[in-house]
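call fold(seq) -> tokens
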Amino acid sequence: MRKSFVHALGAVAFFTSAAFAANQLVPAKILLVKAPPSDATKRKITFKVKENASAATVVGDPIASGGATFHVVLSPGGDQCFTLPASGWSPVSDIGFKYKDPSLANGAVKVAMIKKTPSGVFLVKVILKGSGSESIDVVPGNPTLTYGTNFAVGGGDSYCSGTASATPNPNDEKTFKVVNDTAPASCTASACASPSGAFLDR
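ret:
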């Protein structure tokens, strides 16, 4: 059974039915894709959500339910799934989870986090580097016209960001950067297969 962390009025409620799994639409605070043309090992992706007084909730348990996945789609620019196995996750008190892989042994994701503070701030962070065991194949489209991301928690929900009101800048062959976007109208990037092979799609 999975645990679902939901904070309301300072309390924590637990739900254990997969029927609650859903796509939650969240605004990208930043999506940065950098791809120096001369060295693929220096490619990196930074993604962050920070929403005050958020209606989003942390649903799922990446430790007990096969980790998490992160899907990035740039059109044009590429489409790639990244896995964050359960072994790299640990709890953040009772408000969420954090992931660490400083040596990049499990893939391109170095650190990640999902949590919701008692004051209602919802945060997601994923930092990826192409200098480890997995390459980053997504590159800026020069220009990229649309983007989508999907951070899916094992046994729980998907958290989707994507093209909305913000204008990317820069948006060239080396750098795609979006800052302070609003939540998208729909989830355009699907969830990926988990490290255990089960699809986290909703």
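The mean pLDDT is 89.
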